[in-house]
Design brief:
The complex is a heterodimer of chains A (369) and B (280).
Chain A: E1 4-12, E2 18-27, E3 32-36, H1 43-51, E4 58-63, E5 66-67, E6 78-81, H2 93-103, H3 108-121, H4 137-150, E7 155-159, H5 167-184, E8 187-192, H6 195-201, E9 204-209, E10 212-217, H7 219-224, H8 229-234, E11 241-248, E12 251-254, E13 257-260, E14 269-275, E15 281-284, E16 290-299, E17 303-310, E18 313-320, E19 329-332, E20 339-342, E21 348-349
Parallel strand pairs in A: 3-8, 3-9, 6-7, 7-8
Antiparallel strand pairs in A: 1-2, 1-4, 4-5, 9-10, 11-12, 11-14, 12-13, 14-20, 15-19, 16-17, 16-19, 17-18, 20-21
Chain B: H1 6-30, H2 34-40, H3 50-59, H4 70-101, H5 107-116, H6 126-135, H7 142-146, H8 153-165, H9 168-176, H10 181-192, H11 194-209, H12 213-218, H13 227-235, H14 246-276
Helix pairs in contact in B: 1-14, 3-14, 4-8, 4-11, 5-8, 11-14, 13-14
The chains are: A alpha+beta (369), B mainly alpha (280).
């Protein structure tokens, strides 16, 4: 068990391509960190640099109080779970679990004890003599995790471990990983491109884009206060609506509508406005603030996603399925739930009105549409 | 589903007949006496001299020095065949391992250099090879018989392709599990290549077993004669007024066939298993 320090780490390939640029993350002992981002954002490269499978071009990685830049992967005291499991196909489950320990000259009795313990935790006892090919995907993934657990390393590294599983299994394995990590309390770094996995698993999220950190924070903080438009559109499903608006004093012009914010935002003029689909309320006729033309509806069962346009900007609203859809609709949103981003840099703009939880939808002026 | 019809069986039977009939004729003829064969030619019936002929072939000391027996020749052939196949596999696996897993300068160039030698048959370099062996006074030794033939472009190429198909993550998992280059090779790659090894072993054993020109050149001492050479030796008697021992030649030919057939039968099961098992 150990903390992990990633300090100004960069990966620059021979051709001059920068995959990861100057990333710093401090990971506390026992923390579950999820690196999330679209494919090609450098999250796997970063993980592999921590594992020692890629050379670190710049910066330093510390595990515990040891700088491990030049340390062999085997000596970094880490264990890794791969996307395609990477089980040794010719070895039985038992041998797969024991291989790492055997290479470290662990006494036979202790190997047996540790394998038995891991097998019990992961409910693998009936399969110990089987070869990996005789196991299902979920069982293989459990073996891969068992291989990490038996070593009792200071850190677990997960490289998209669930992406080869079907949707149902993914949900149950997600729970299992979380439970297991709580139980053994090992510091973990988990890479995924699935924002839902990231939200549910992480103690803290690291959102990466183009090799740079967009935001680090607890899942709910990231969800409620995305630092950039990238994070806003990446975290949460459906993605946050990003529309362009214009600020005039304490008023926001959004398409044909004018909304009184009740406070000024520290910027004026063109701005990117973020609206969560689930914060939008739908009204019959023109009772709401934003005139909304419905395009089509996606029924999800518990809720429905209504796609439409405000002015000429597309918008999605998530509404409970009980509410009947009006012919002509309009939307309203609590001003406190509005997010503002710089229209050029995409950086979040904090303002005083946000976070002030509105008890009811405050009165808003309805602009002539 | 396709239903097997009578015609299919007929076609298969014709195939079996074409393949097996010559062998049966050779075997049947080998049980006759030499004079009988000389008079009546090949025969399809049982001659009744099976034990005598095969006993003679295996145990009678013959040749110019009177020291070489059929059993001895089989032994020599086995040494050549197995040494040849095993040596080629070990050498080409190691070469392929180096080419695939170690990024050294000009690695690709070396690979293609090895690969282009595929185009040259053994016979092209047989005289220089002989010259070298002669200078090292390795003629009439098993070493001289086997070693010069070991470098194998075919084997290296097959193993290279196979190693390239082994998932990269397996290497990474092994590295994290604390397996060094040597351990990874022995513990992971060799067991994974079992079926590939079986396939190459079949090909190379038969190739080595059937070598004729190189053993002829390398061995003048009869103690090192291989079976394939022995058969030829028997027919050489023709020069005199003797009737050549046709029966013995046929018996030797049958004997020469047995080990490769057995090897193919033993390894074939692995071979097919390897082809049908999907994941590595």
């Amino acid at each position: 068990m150990a903390s992990i320090g990633i300090k100004d780490v960069s990966k620059i390939y021979n051709g001059g391509v920068t995959a990861v640029s100057s990333v710093s993350i401090d990971i506390a002992d026992g923390e579950f960190i999820v690196l999330v981002g679209p494919s090609g954002c450098g999250k796997s490269t970063l993980l592999r640099m921590v594992a020692g499978l890629e050379a670190i071009s710049e910066g330093s990685v510390t595990i515990g109080d040891r700088v491990v830049n030049e340390v062999d992967p085997a000596d970094r005291d880490i264990a890794m779970v791969f996307q395609n499991y990477a089980l040794y196909p010719h070895m039985s489950v038992y041998e797969n679990l024991a291989y790492g320990l055997k290479n470290r000259r662990t006494p036979k009795a202790e190997i047996d004890a540790r394998v038995a313990e891991a097998a019990r935790m992961l409910e693998l006892q009936p399969y110990l003599e089987r070869k990996p090919r005789a196991l299902s995907g979920g069982q293989r993934q459990r073996v891969a995790m068992g291989r990490a657990i038996v070593r009792k390393p200071s850190a677990f590294l997960f490289d998209e471990p669930l992406s080869n599983l079907d949707a149902k299994l993914r949900v149950s394995m997600r729970g299992e990983i979380k439970r297991l990590q709580r139980r053994v309390g090992t510091t973990s770094i988990y890479v995924t491109h699935d924002q839902l996995e990231a939200m549910t698993l992480a103690d803290r999220l690291v959102v990466l884009s183009g090799g740079k950190i967009e935001q680090i924070g607890r899942p709910l903080d990231v969800y409620h206060r995305p630092a950039t438009t990238f994070v806003a559109s990446f975290i949460g499903s459906p993605a946050m609506n990003l529309v362009t608006g214009e600020l005039h004093g304490s008023k926001l012009a959004l398409g044909p509508a004018l909304i009184d914010l009740g406070a000024t935002v520290p910027t004026q003029g063109a701005v990117t406005v973020g609206l969560r689909a689930e914060d939008l309320h739908i009204h019959d006729g023109t009772k709401g603030d934003l005139p909304f033309r419905i395009d089509y509806v996606e029924e999800l069962g518990s809720q429905r996603l209504v796609h439409g346009v405000v002015g000429d900007q597309p918008l999605v609203a998530a509404i409970p399925s009980e509410i009947p859809l009006p012919e002509t609709a309009s939307l309203s949103i609590a001003t406190a739930k509005l997010h503002f981003f710089d229209s050029k840099s995409g950086q979040r703009i904090d303002w005083v009105g946000e976070g002030a939880i509105a008890a009811s939808i405050p009165a808003m002026e309805v602009a002539a549409s | 589903m396709y239903r097997t019809r009578l015609l299919d069986h007929v076609i298969l039977l014709i195939g079996v007949f074409i393949m097996v009939a010559p062998v049966v004729v050779a075997f049947m003829t080998s049980t006759h006496e030499a004079a009988d064969i000389h008079r009546n030619g090949l025969s399809l019936t049982w001659g009744g001299y099976f034990t005598e002929t095969y006993n003679t072939v295996l145990t009678r000391k013959g040749g110019f020095t009177g020291e070489i027996t059929g059993a001895r020749m089989i032994w020599n052939s086995l040494i050549l065949g197995i040494g040849f196949a095993a040596g080629k596999i070990i050498l080409s696996m190691l070469a392929a391992y180096a080419i695939v897993y170690f990024r050294f300068k000009l690695g690709t160039l070396f690979f293609w250099m090895i690969f282009t030698t595929l185009l040259l048959p053994l016979e092209v370099r047989i005289l220089p090879s002989y010259e070298v062996m002669n200078k090292l006074s390795l003629t009439n030794t098993y070493t001289g018989l086997i070693v010069p033939l070991l470098a194998s472009a075919t084997g290296t190429f097959y193993f290279r392709q196979f190693f390239k198909s082994v998932p990269e993550e397996l290497l990474e998992a092994a590295r994290i599990d604390g397996a060094g280059p040597f351990k990874f090779f022995i513990d992971i790659l060799v067991p994974l290549s079992r079926t590939m090894i079986a396939a190459i072993f079949i090909i190379m054993f038969v190739y080595g077993w059937n070598q004729y020109l190189w053993p002829t050149l390398m061995t003048t001492d009869e103690r090192f004669f291989t079976l394939v050479r022995g058969i030829k030796q028997i027919l050489l008697v023709w020069v005199g007024s003797n009737i050549p021992d046709y029966n013995e030649a046929f018996a030797l030919a049958i004997l020469a066939m047995l080990p490769p057939v057995m090897i193919v039968m033993i390894f074939q099961r692995w071979f097919i298993k390897g082809l049908t098992e999907s994941d590595k």
